[in-house]
Amino acid sequence: MPHERGHTPAQGELSARLSDPRYGSATITPHLLRYLTLVAAERGHDLSPALGRAGLSEAALSSVGLRVSYRQGSSVIREAVRELGDPALGLAVGRRQRVTAWGLVGLGLQASATLRDAVELGVRHHGVTGSMLDYRLEAVPAGAAILATARYTDSELRAFLLEEAFGSIVALIRDAWRKEFTPHSVSVRHHRPAYGDEYERYFRCPVTFDAPDDRLVFAADDLRRPLPGADAYTLAQVAGLLDAARTHGRERQDLVQGLEVSVARGLPHVPPLAQQALARGMSERTLRRRLAEHGTTYEALVDSVRLVRAEELMTTSDLPLHRIARMLGFSDARTLRRAVARWFGTSPSAMRGAASRLRRPA
Fold it and tell me: Which segments in the chain show pLDDT lower than 50?
């Protein structure tokens, strides 16, 4: 897997990523993982064990209300890349998708009046598409560009996520509009990988590596073109549903992440739910109901925060287990070992061994 400008993941980078409570927040729709699982199956690989180790299942990925965390998604992706042995897996997952892969957003793209309208809709609601990157639209001399930025410093996955993101955007446009579509240009920050020719073959446009940022550029003439499935009535319906989902998602994210930050700051002492409710001006019963409406519980959030913190401490420090257990609010090292087995399907010593091998210079 190519790294950003030759950068190798370091202990400090891993620690910064894992210590951010948002890393464990289940706020991402599982679309990317659904197609990763599909591509793996088509190649004769079963990702069920990897999904299980991340606390997921193939059946659960089809659940409309399911949300996964960045930690879960990145864990499955890393295992898939290792198992399939394909450094260009991100491109394969991206180009495998069709306009229906993005659900309501896909329908909205089809119903948009022009390609520009479709691109603006996709960028506005990219959180619903399961992307693990963030996007913004920027005017450029050629027309407009989608700029992708990482949510976490995660150089090990940057190339995969960019390839899947830009590859799926182009795949959806070709599916909804015309198969001959080509972007104006593609630029990425990482070095040209050994499979760099795959970029030119797939995107069929100039590709720049070692660029200042990651961008997919659309020509002005293409942006003005009408789409064959344009339907103002359908678009209005879809936009209303997406706006409602976006508002609900933002409320969930604010509530969940606020509680996770509070728990993370309080460890090893976990603030009781009554205290959390009082701080938010509501009753304990109301807070439980709000969490249930968002598909989670306070106990699950506490578990998630402990999981992320445990992963950080065990893979970036040499602290003894009994000290880590105390830092997480567990009674003893035995309780921590049971939690690690439940979270990761392995032992603390095995986790530390694997992390040590990854940090060892090649």
Answer: 1-18, 362
User: What token pair was written down for 235?
Assistant: 């678009």
Residues 215, 112 within the same domain: yes
What residue numbers bound the domain in which 151 lies? 9-230
Task: Please tell me the distance from the alpha carbon of residue 265 to that of residue 267, in angstroms, as a whole number.
Answer: 6
Residue in 86, 56, 92 with CA at minimum distance from that of residue 71: 56
The DSSP-derived string for 72-99 is HHHHHHHHHHHHHT-TTHHHHHHHT--G
- Residue 24 near residue 18 (C-beta atoms within 8 A): no
> Quick check: helix, strand or coil at residue 27?
strand
Residue 300 lies in a domain: yes
pLDDT, residue 8, reads 38
Q: Residue 310's closest CA among 357, 269, 344, 360?
A: 344
Q: CA–CA separation, 216 vs 138, rounded Å?
A: 10
Three-state DSSP at 140 gives strand
Strand 143-150 to strand 185-187: parallel, antiparallel, or no bridges (unpaired)?
unpaired
pLDDT of residue 312: 82
Whether 140 and 244 share a structural domain: no
Residues 324 and 207 in one domain: no
pTM, two decimals, is 0.75
- Listed residue (306, 273, 18, 328) closest to 154, CA to CA: 18
On whether both 116 and 19 belong to a single domain, the answer is yes
Query: By 3-state DSSP, what share of the chain in percent is helix, strand and coil, each rounded to 5?
Result: 60, 10, 30
> Which of 131, 69, 73 is closest to 305 using CA atoms?
69
Q: Are residues 225 and 275 in the same domain?
A: no
Left if phi > 0, otherwise alpha if psi is -120 to 50, otherwise beta: which for 103?
left
Run of H or E residues at 165: helix 155-176
Q: Are 336 and 321 in contact (CB under 8 A)?
A: yes
129/259 same-domain check:
no
Q: What pLDDT, on a 0 to 100 scale, did the predictor assign at position 213?
A: 95
Number of domains in the chain: 2
What pLDDT is stored for residue 246 in this prediction? 79
Contact 268, 30 (CB under 8 A): no
